[in-house]
Structure prediction request, 435 residues.
Amino acid sequence: MSSLAQLSPRAFADHLRALGLDRAYVVTGADGRLHLSDPALAELQEHLHGSPDYHRHEGIFIEVGPETGALFGAFVHDTRRGQGQGGLRYWPYPTLGAFLSDGLRLAQGMTRKNALAGLWWGGAKGIIARDPAHRADDPGHRAALYREYAAFVTSLGGCYITAEDAGTGPSDMAQVFSATRFVTCIPPAFGGSGNPSPATARGVVCAMEGALDHRGEGPLAGKRIVMQGTGNVAAAMIGELFDRGVAHVLASEIDPNRRAELLARFAGAPLEIRLSPPGDASILAEPCDILAPNALGGILSPATIPTIQAPIICGAANNQLLDERRDADALRARGILYVPDFLANRMGIVSCANEQYGVVQGDPAIQRHLGRTWENSVYLTTRRTLELAEREGITTAAAAIHLADQLAAEPHPIWGHRGRAIIDTLVDQRWHRAR
Ligand code: NAD
Prediction:
């Protein structure tokens, strides 16, 4: 790793300022070559070139917050299908290298999630590096941070459309909305779509049905489901599963209050919730028909995969595989059918992405994802992915990526590859010197 990449995000921000810079970009030209905003940052370009997470991302934009001094990133991966859309993560990173890797990886993940969902959006991701020296719970600091970030998004001319993600909440999104139009996932008070968890839960349940049908295991009725976590998505999922007649749900939860709340909500239903310390993954080893990871990412790993007794894994958590390739291979080798998370949990981003098209009762643009006739529905996409994996002898993750990458290559039917034109404009207008 280059020495620049080993700096903390704060130290890199200071480095930029010492060079007289408050913005930087690395853009991939149509010829595949990297173009840098300033030759003084050549090391940054070399780092990206050597990074396993860089996959011809169209543009990586970096800014130092004018007042807060925080490091902002906008990672635009692929805009052929539409403007790059993806959430804004407010997260601490030990190094610039970790900040860049996360942004690059998550942006590519959004290209795939959006494309596989049949949305006319490209993929991107935003990051505010959380500085340990700043109090994340100070409302004044947060408001300044998110307004600055929104101004940064505005400056990018719409090649990146931001949204809520880990570490960012509804009040932060209200701040973002106050300073940019290039945002979705805003609070309902401003016309946003509100809590996406019920829709996410319904989508995951459709994916479960697709997986059961693929295996010829019949409907959810009578099945035993095990899940990790009983948060917002899981609670809605439990309701959906009982509506479909599942025989038993066993869940783990680290928060005793949450456990008590859900047991009261589902009193009389065949629901068991085990209180477990964080770091205890023993719930994954419980026998069941479907295992639903609904809490944390990275829980499918060499430590847990050998213990799993479920024939199917299908849950809401993002990035369930600790290592995308290795752990997908390990699951396949054990004959466990893994429904890729970005296929099953799409409905959060679908709700957000659709919110600017207005409010319709029983919205058909949402319902078609949850039905069985639209070719891009969760159910049919799940079936198609699992069939492809079986036919080609590849992992389900590889099959989903293959289908997603095919869709991602389709240009937007009206606007074409406009994100690229926006990025070219930023470069031509010397965005990096415009503040
Ligand atoms: P949440 O914070 O409401 O729920 C997570 C729950 O898991 C909490 O109750 C928490 O106490 C519990 N938990 C944490 N660590 C645990 C552990 N080790 N063992 C057992 N329980 C644990 O989050 P959510 O909105 O329900 O989302 C759940 C997952 O789904 C996350 O990974 C999220 O990124 C992903 N996701 C959510 C949406 C959505 O619409 N909310 C959309 C896509 C993906």
User: Anything to note?
Assistant: Residues 196-197, 200, 228-234, 252-255, 258, 276, 278, 294-297, 316-318, 345, 348 surround nicotinamide-adenine-dinucleotide (CB under 6 Å). The domain at 9-195+421-433 is CATH 3.40.50.10860 (Rossmann fold). The chain has a mean pLDDT of 96.
